[in-house]
Amino acid sequence: MNKFICIIIILVGFACNSETTSNSSIVSESDVKPLTFLDSISDVIISNPNNSYNYYRRALFFYRDGEYDQALADIERAINLDDSVAEYFYLEGNIYYDDNVFENAFNSYQAAVDLDNEHIEAILKLSSIELALENYQLALDMVNKALKVDPNYAEAYYIKGFIYLNGGDTLKSISSFRTAVEVNPDHYNSYIMLGKLYASENHEYANDYYDNAIRIRPNSIEALYNKGLYLQSVEQYEEAYLLYDKIIELDSSSYFAYYNRGYIMLISDSSYSGAIKEFEKSLKFYPYYIEAFYNIGLCYENQGDYEKAKEYYKKSLEINPQYDLAAYGLSRLLE
């Protein structure tokens, strides 16, 4: 179940960036206006309670606002009035999907596809659920069905990349993510995945793919951090440090950026006092950061302050008694 939710979260970019190819004339989410819309559409529903489309429109409003129960109630009213509209079932699927009720989501997406076998978004949602269930061939079949509808649909190649990756075929995974950025040079999520795959091998291509992700979203903490980690792994510490600086400018509570600045000070400069300050900043925003406690202890140990070092090794072990590095550090000082 945890793996299921993990993959669903990874694929959330697909839901957010979905390209629309459906020929349906149903209003899109972007057409729903949040200011006076709710009152006006409710008045319309009162005056004409048998119009399914208006319930659909109000369901969209509630869905966008995260009010899943109310959204579900309205979309079910719409379906009860007219069960021939694929987009109604697709919205119902999205409500269940975002509310983590995946079995119901699957059934709703399937109903949408039964009504419109070219509903590419619903087909790909079915594929993502099959992927999460580790039904890789079924997931691949769904993706290929979507690509028959639109051979240039980047999200389909993106999901295909995950299918191959989870199935253990890294080369085909890379090929699919590359195809996604070929058909859509602004497909952010595929650049991120390509960056991660090449970074895992310390390959210089990682830098280029992360640069493209940053080109698309210059203030993406995800892209900046991933690039920083890659540069750090290949010992380009100054460049990595600058990226962590930018992350902190964007979000001063980014504990992982403080931590990595401290790590660079510790590893590259042996600047123990400066590193301690960075690790302490990290702990301010994430008080259970075991590695930060451990590294503070390591800094104090290198400075010869063994009592302080023991104190911080013990703090690490209070959080996780099985944390071996802290246990080894403490045993060194107790010998």
Please give the count of helices: 20
What is the typical, i.e. mean, pLDDT?
91
Assign a percent range to the helix content: over 70%
Largest sheet: none
Instruction: Could you tell me the CATH topology label of the domain at 267-335.
Output: Serine Threonine Protein Phosphatase 5, Tetratricopeptide repeat
CATH superfamily (homologous) name of the domain at 267-335: Tetratricopeptide repeat domain
Low-confidence stretches: 12-25
Which geometry do the CA atoms define?
Answer: elongated
Distance between the termini: 45 Å
Briefly summarize what is shown.
With 335 residues, the chain is mainly α. Helices cover 75% and strands 0% of the residues.
How do the helices and strands line up, and which of them pair or pack?
Blueprint: H1 2-10, H2 12-16, H3 37-47, H4 52-64, H5 68-81, H6 86-98, H7 102-115, H8 120-132, H9 136-149, H10 154-166, H11 170-183, H12 188-199, H13 205-216, H14 221-233, H15 237-250, H16 255-269, H17 272-285, H18 290-303, H19 306-319, H20 324-334
Helix pairs in contact: 1-8, 3-4, 4-5, 5-6, 6-7, 7-8, 8-9, 8-10, 9-10, 10-11, 11-12, 12-13, 12-14, 13-14, 14-15, 15-16, 16-17, 17-18, 18-19, 19-20
